[in-house]
Every structure is written in C-alpha cells, then in structure tokens.
Amino acid sequence: MSDVRAKAELAKKSTGELAVLTTEQKNEALFNIARSIEQQTERILQENERDIENGVDNGLSGALLDRLRLTETRLKDIVSGLESLLELPDPVGEVLESWRRDDGLSIEKVRVPLGVIGMIYEARPNVTVDATGLGLKTGNAMLLRGSSSALNSNRVLVDVIRQGLEQSDVPSDAVQLVETTDRGTVQDMLKLNGLIDVIIPRGGAALIQRVVSESSVPVLETGAGICHIYIDRDARSEMAHSIVINAKTDRPGVCNAVETVLVHEAWAEKELQPLVEALEQCGVEVRGCSRTQSFAPSVKQANADDWDTEYLDTILSIKVVDSLNEAVAHIHRHGTRHSECIVTDNEQTANAFLQQVDAACVYHNASTRFTDGFQFGFGAEIGISTQKLHARGPIGLPQLTSYKYVLRGDGHIRGGGPTSC
C-alpha cells in the first residue's frame, strides 16, 4: 500500500466523526490550533528558515521566496484567519430549501461536507493552515500535498495542527500530510477516486492543467491568474496609476496581481510614458508591443509568450489597443478567467466591459488585488475558482460543502404501489 493511499484511508475513516461534530466542537478545535501556532511560533519560523535557505540555494526567484516565507506578522495573520472562522456561520446542516408535498411528505435540501479534500499546492505554507481551517469548519478531512520547497514548513505546521486537534473532539487523523514530494505522489492522489472526494490544485498553470487533465477524482479548479487591467480613453490618470501600481507591486507573487495592462491609444498618447516611468521607479520591468515602445522607448520588446505568462514577479506587459472590443478580445484569448479590470469614468463603457468579460471577478476602477476571501468578507479562502460549476471566485465555507435531500414521511408509499407481496 502506498503512503498516499494509507493516509487517504485514515482521512476517509475520520469523515464519519467529522460529519456529526457540532459547531462548538469545530470552533474549539480551530481555537486550539490557533493557540498552538502562537505557542510554537519560534519553532515554525526556524523550520521555515530552513526552506528559505534551501530555496536561495536552489535559485528560487524573489517572488517565490516571498510566497514561501513566514514571518511573525504573517503567522499572526494566519492565526487571525483561523479566529475569523470562529465568527462565521457553520454552513453544515443549513437548510437551503424545503417544501411539503400535498400528501404531507416533507423534503429538505441540506448542506453536508464534501468528505475528503485533497489539496495539491506549491510553495505556500500558509495554505496548509488556511485550507485546514476551512476544511475543519465544514466537517471535511484534509489530505495535503505541498511543494518540496516548503516541506519543512508544512511538516511542522501539520504537527502543530494535529497537536491542537488532540486537545479537542476532532480526530487528528482528519489532517494528513503527504511528505513524499516526488511527482509520483501527485499521480497517486489523482487516482484515489472513492477515497478522495475532491481535489483542489493551487499553483501555476502547469500544475493545474496536469491535475485537471489526469485526475479521476473530481477537481475544483483554481486557475492561474493572468489578470488584466484595461485603461480606457476616459480613465483618470491618477486613478489609473494608483490601480496599476497597486495591482502589480503590492504582492507580485500572488494570483490576483496584474500581469498585462491594455491601454487605449487615445490615453496612451499623453499618459503612457508617465505610467511606465512610475512603474520603473517601483522596480517593475516593463515589456510591451511596438506601439507601447513608440510611446515609451525604455520598454522592452514583448514576445508572443508574454501575453500568456503569469509572471508572479515584478514584470508587467503593456499592449496598446484601439478599442474596448479589442481589449475584451485580447482578454478572452489570453486570460485565465480570474480577475479583470477596467479603469474609466465612462459608465456605459464600464458596463459593457463588466457584461462582456468572462471571468470570476470583474472590476470597475478597483485593483484586482481585492479578489480574496478576506476582502470579500468570507474569512479565509482555499483559493480562487476560475471554473463555472460548483464554485466560482473565492472558495470559502459554503463552496466546500455539497448537499443532500432529506425526506420525512409517515409511512408514505408511492401512489398505487403494493404495500406487501
């Protein structure tokens, strides 16, 4: 038996207990995990530093190292995320719909846990805790497979989490970490239909595409974030500068950072050069089409691959377009249906953009960095879904449940059928 299957079986066995936990029991477990993280902050940071040192030795980019790094502040944010879940309503057991037939048979549509959630993710140790917190609040078991670059961090975090569970009524087997990080373990997880109820990949486009194409387990896809900002001819310069700089430089290594800016030619004539200068002052490498270079000569020539690249770094591509329609066509050709923004003071143009663009989140005059469970008021999130079925946008608590129909009768039988043989 493979290590992955053995851990999946342990997780599956815990789902019966998880499904009947009260909200109070789940909240107690989350509270204990939060306290355990606080008490062992120094130990967690020491293990994370080992991963950082290995990452530097292995040539990880600055943006990837940023995603990998834990600090006291980030651990406090992780703890705050767990604590925020205590205040959120427990969706399990919620009656979504109910009705009574003419013959008195009652029917209810009730939220239930998904079961075992398999998480496959890259160098983001915060996902280990965020995903576990959301999973436990919704009565799900977690099978976690993180990146080899974050193994020390993930190992200590799962140990700390399980210590918190041992102080509560939640079985510690509900959280499992796959510590073998070779590519074969991913393939093993993708074949465990029946033990794993859903797999959520979180990472780059190559990882997500592999999971989607090879998995026999249902997949909740969290797509790559090739996010666009379209600066319309009627955009205010100061607003456009502020939004673009925030969306690119606030945290360039995350999926809701902007990667491509599309600029209407009428705006570009006077305003593109100052925007490029502002970006370069912030340390951003700007690449662009030939028309972009004609307005801003310092811009590097973009190639065809740039429009399809999630940089996750301080790199930005700019393309000059003639119209809203050209901008929308570019987004549909190169985007990932994640987060797309228009900057304009023209309400008619804005509404056309918001209606036409096919993405989980569309913005008017706001940074794409708001695509986030906390910012939406959902509490911690497990990722951003770019698919259309089951869940779309930030994946919070309700999106980690399914439902079943509960029927209550009083000896009801289907009309006219036999009652004995």
UniProtKB/TrEMBL annotation:
A Gene Ontology molecular function term of the record: NADP binding
Pathway assignment: Amino-acid biosynthesis; L-proline biosynthesis; L-glutamate 5-semialdehyde from L-glutamate: step 2/2
Compartments, as annotated in UniProt: Cytoplasm
Catalytic activity: L-glutamate 5-semialdehyde + phosphate + NADP(+) = L-glutamyl 5-phosphate + NADPH + H(+)
Known function: Catalyzes the NADPH-dependent reduction of L-glutamate 5-phosphate into L-glutamate 5-semialdehyde and phosphate. The product spontaneously undergoes cyclization to form 1-pyrroline-5-carboxylate.
Domain Aldehyde dehydrogenase: 3-305
GO biological process: L-proline biosynthetic process
Organism of this sequence: Novibacillus thermophilus
Coiled coil regions, renumbered to chain: none
Family membership: Belongs to the gamma-glutamyl phosphate reductase family.
Designated name of the protein: Gamma-glutamyl phosphate reductase
